[in-house]
């Protein structure tokens, strides 16, 4: 494990233990207040005993973007459901959807919506929104600690129309900043990735007419660019290469010690990636009937424009009733107590209205 990541995880686990201690104290206090009803079910809001009767194993794979958050929730869930083992393997959204369609996992994480080519049968699954987070434009440029980029400049950089950091377009975005004549190395995902899908969708929308590579889990990157597996792979390329730039989730960017650019939003403001900017971006997002939504390039002076949602896809009906109960129990926990863990690993919890819709979606699972 990289030393920066190890230190970050140690700090994160300390925070997690503090949260769990608080939950335990709250549960004891509630017990002292005296409730004689011990029939709490996993469909409730969590707490002492709500998940104690669950037993079994859940296997999941998918998006690496929310992996830090999902691992926190999995760890915290153990304290509530000691007889349940949940494994989430961050394979990337594309592989997760494929494995879900093949029946190799019980649910999958994805930052992009399911397509016909993903191998998942239409009508057999549902989206459950979980959290959202900014996709950073992380960079490594000696002597430059602050950087601003407009969508058009960003598009030109990532399709390699701009070759060096002292290009006139980059200078125009950064008045007064001394930019070196350092060659730009573009780092991108080499695997099928929902992060790539959201990043390229953003460029398609915000830099329409400039961006030429289209959007999707994979795109045809120029030959001179470098690919890395998962968000951590892209982060390491950026960290190790002076002049490099890549798109990385905020959690992994911080864990790797990267600098990230402020991006010009729809209202013309340069905004750095943050949870506050993510929340501002979520407020104006329209939610579809299937609970998919897209907060990219949202309006609002404080909205960070590359705000990405992430989802878990579940079966509408499981053959095994116990498996259905386990999935419902875990996701109910994630959407209740689990939301309190989001900000500690740089994710924004769902707005209250969307959280309630997500809980209602979970209750529809049959088995």
From TrEMBL:
Domain PBP stretches: 55-337
Keywords: Phosphate transport, Transport
CDD domains reported for this sequence: PBP2_PstS
GO biological process, one term: phosphate ion transmembrane transport
Cross-referenced InterPro entries: ABC_phos-bd_PstS (IPR005673), PBP_domain (IPR024370), Phosphate-bind_PstS (IPR050962)
Pfam families referenced in this protein's UniProt entry, alphabetically: PBP_like_2
Cellular component annotations (GO), alphabetically ordered: ATP-binding cassette (ABC) transporter complex
GO molecular-function terms, A-Z: phosphate ion binding
Family per similarity comment: Belongs to the PstS family.
Name this polypeptide is given: Phosphate-binding protein
Species annotation: Micromonospora sediminimaris
